[in-house]
User: Which sequence fits this backbone?
């Protein structure tokens, strides 16, 4: 990210915080807490350990679920993109699972895994893995046929064409799917914890939601926002490392 981009992003964040503060001051502060009140609540939650004691659990479930989603999604998506029979066999199931609403499927996972960390992990996987599969499959299918024909004319076999031609050409679209998958994984871990109601940041959100405490609720949402921004920055950094040649 260039210095100009950083300045523009920082300016937009400052402007958004100023608008939030003004709206909170103009309207009823219990309904729309000012930004400074939310930041103060965030500081209190950090100092009394409420955030730090739950963040580790959330990050653990998120990390395991995201790792499984990315690893499994990349392998399954690549195989579907390279092998037509497998693509035809799995595509209906992938598409169906992708479009099942989270509000419908999360209680099913809860019924199966009960009050365990695996409920959250499976919800994270459900949120993230299918977009990774679909993007990876599409990336391998979109390889320029002329490049493949040229590789064959120079004696490349199927494995060499996949590793030397298809994979490098597919990387930009694959990483686009990884970025979306990582963002959806953040949503997934919070949704999973909301259904459990007692664990992680989602449990804190559920607690303050039931108490109608908008200030502390938004403070927890601020933590989730920071977590999302860090995850997004890390995925973009990895993407730039592996796709620098495409710039």
Assistant:
């Amino acid at each position: 990210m260039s210095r100009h981009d950083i300045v523009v992003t920082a300016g937009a964040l400052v402007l958004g915080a100023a608008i939030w503060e003004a709206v909170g001051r103009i309207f009823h502060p219990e309904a729309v807490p000012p930004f400074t009140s939310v930041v103060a609540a965030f500081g209190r939650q950090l100092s009394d350990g409420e955030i730090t004691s739950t963040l580790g659990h959330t990050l653990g479930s998120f990390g395991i679920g995201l790792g499984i989603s990315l690893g499994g999604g990349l392998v399954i998506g690549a195989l579907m993109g390279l092998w037509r029979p497998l693509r035809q066999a799995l595509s209906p199931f992938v598409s169906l699972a992708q479009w099942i609403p989270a509000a419908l499927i999360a209680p099913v996972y809860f019924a199966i895994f009960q009050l365990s960390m695996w409920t959250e992990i499976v919800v994270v996987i459900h949120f993230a893995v299918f977009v990774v599969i679909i993007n990876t499959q599409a990336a391998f299918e979109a390889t320029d046929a002329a490049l493949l024909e040229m590789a064959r004319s120079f004696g490349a076999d199927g494995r060499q064409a996949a590793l030397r031609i298809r994979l490098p050409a597919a990387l930009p679209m694959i990483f686009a799917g990884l970025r979306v998958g990582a963002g959806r994984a953040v949503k997934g871990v919070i949704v999973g914890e909301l259904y459990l109601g007692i664990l992680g940041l989602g449990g804190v959100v559920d607690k303050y939601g039931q108490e109608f405490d908008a200030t502390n609720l938004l403070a927890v949402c601020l933590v989730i926002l920071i977590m999302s921004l860090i995850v997004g920055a890390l995925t973009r950094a990895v993407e730039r490392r592996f796709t620098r040649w495409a710039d």
